[in-house]
Amino acid sequence: MSAVAITRTHAVPRGATALERASIRLADAVTRWAMRRAELRQERRDAMLAAVQAEQTRKADPRAADHMLAQVGVIRR
Description:
Blueprint: H1 18-56, H2 62-71
């Protein structure tokens, strides 16, 4: 005899046939799969938006202005 651990419980109407019980389990599995995909997609989207925001809000180099002024011959500050 093998040991079985019940990890999920399904609300199955009284008198459900084997096909109906299997359909409920399948629907639960598909729902978990779809939710996981959506969560992964949301995580990728959040990471992409964070990367874009970090790229767009880079701090300017304080020496860049001095360098550009020196290139055109203006005395540095």
